[in-house]
Amino acid sequence: DTARDTHIDSTSTTRANDLQDMTVHHIKSLPLLLLLLLARHVHGFVISPVRSTPSRWQAADADIANDSDIADMRLGQIQQELRDCNVSYADCFDRESLTKRLLEARESKASATEEPIAAATGPADDDESFQQELDRLRSLRVRELREECAKRQIRWGSFVEKEDLVQAVFAKWKEGANFSVTGMIAPGEVVELNGEQLEQELASSDTPILLDVYATWCGPCQMMAPQLSLVAQEWNDAVRVIKVDSDKHPDVAQKYRVGGLPTLVVLEGGKEQQRVEGALMKDGLLQLMQPYIDAGGDSSD
Fold this sequence. Notes:
The protein is an alpha/beta fold. Helices cover about 55% and strands about 10% of the residues. The strands form 2 sheets. A 5-stranded mixed sheet has the order 3-5-4-6-7. Strands 1-2 form a two-stranded antiparallel ribbon. The chain is elongated, with a radius of gyration of 36 Å. The chain starts with a helix and ends with a helix. One of its GO terms (molecular function) is protein-disulfide reductase activity. One of its GO terms (cellular component) is cytoplasm. It holds the Pfam family Thioredoxin. It comes from Craspedostauros australis.
């Protein structure tokens, strides 16, 4: 009996060991079995489902497919993707222009991932100041943003979302960032400022300023306004043209001893150079500023 029990135990142990070896063998073979099951035969060859890197043509086809999805996007979705790409669309007023801008943004993003990152073209503090201005604009209310648009002569009637207003004002601000410290003045435009902003402009740039102190109820002031816009376009970046409402900002009128309206004050190097009381037409305005424009050109040469 003892010998028989010993034989049975030995046989059981052997079978257990064989079963364990078979289990280990099957487990090790499992990946190969799965691969064979997933493989498919094409013209006598076995095509493995191993993933490979897409070719250049496949990548191009994928780009076309990605671009085609824009047709199914709503305007708000297109604008959101442009914001995510930090791309301004303030000058896009219809679906076609928004679509074109998004395609350009996607192409730029794709090329940026393929090409090495270029060195920065400007100081880092410029990027920081841009972000600060963008954050400031986003903190404003819609009514305040519309007022900012009006000051910069931006048509905001077609804007749907608050971010549309933000991007429009920010685009104008960037245009004037290298022309004026406040970023409120763009070359070739007449801009209304307050006293604090005027002082900032006086302390920072060598470009001469033509200051127009006016009032909304003043007939000659309103008559001169379109003439001032014409010469501002002609002067472009040679002169900063600023308007200040004497009723809203009496401190400015008092500082410059304004006795009649309109009063034109020529400012250069932070100091008053000349003044004229009464409205001037285009020729008179050009004649008033020409010596200062010529002096600026001579100094730059």
